Amino acid sequence: MKTFYIYLCLVSLLASSFSLKADNLFIVAKINNDIITNEDLESRLDLALTLSNLPKEDKIKQQLRKQVLNILIDETIKIQEAQRLGITLSSQDLSNQVIDLENRMNMERNTLFKKFSEINIPEETIVKQIKSQVLWQRLIVARVANNIRITEKQIEETFMSLVKSSGEMEYLFSEIFISSNSLNATSAKEKIESIYSQTTKNNFLMLAEQLSESAVTNSNNQRNWIRENMLNEDLKILFSKMDEDEISKPVVSDEGYHIYFLNQKRKTKKISEDNTYYDLNQIFFKISDENLNEITDYYSNLINTLRENLKGCADLDNTIKQLEDGSGGRIGILKEEDIDPKFIPALKNLPVGKLSKIFVTKNGIQSLMLCSPIQKDSFAAIKKSIENDLKMKRINNAGILLLNKIKQRALIEIVNL
Fold it and tell me: CA-CA-CA-CA torsion for 136, 138, 142, 144, nearest 10 degrees?
């Protein structure tokens, strides 16, 4: 009986192998009991190139092939681990994620899969990416986030450092990161240089979304304001020499390789008490004199649509990443005296997480959002922001370690690339 069972297994495997070859399919990688085929890889490459506005040329595909395969392997491992722990994604959960993605990409309802299928990107490719992100986020919350505590001492020490450094420069930047922990130094360097050769100001955030390595999401590309005293000496020098909207060459660190996009830089104000503070986010569209009225109407309608659909600053950040012509992101916590007076009346009664009325200036069209309630006590607001930042850093670091640990015990085989 045992011999017969083994025989059936062999027949099944041979039939599967024959089927793959007959349809010009072949296995690219094996991850435990799952496989990634050449069609899986090609579809994901096409998705990454489409979202990053890169041409679907063989040369570019070849440069990005290894990195996209590594991301597919990570996604497979994340889904497997979530399933092992009984963490699931219902059809309604998936539907909600698709609707959110359609809103962020300014697409009509129930058109996402159809539009991508028209350019030969199957539904399964998009579903797998969404599924891995959501399941991993839930896993991180269950296994990591709920166990992280930030002490009052940690908050106070960070706050005192912030007070001491107030008045110095701070930088708003985005990042693409390739870890050298799971790769040899040569492979990591080749991958970051390949990505760097494709980066532009217009596609940087989308490339980061598709190709950057991270534990909680696919985005080490979140734009972060950071004080210069929090940077190491090399980054201080790098950012001080960079212009706004400039992309750095690859930078090596102990963890791996980084490419930075410097969105903005500014000199901070000294922290003082008895001020009104606003924790702000914004979305901005540049306009030109050509077809001014038509363009103004278009972006005004878009912002009105976003106001009805967005549910907070995180949603706004994700939307900005998806829009080719939109910019903005977290402004941070500002004193009322540092905000243009024309914005204050609109902010006073603005609900948290809702876009404000539209402001049209000579430079463009913008709308603001409060990320937290307006604070009279600056120290309380700042300390809460510090606590959230410290917790997020701890979660990200713990998530990276967890993913690497899971990968070490996984059976991963690159068969044919």
Answer: 50
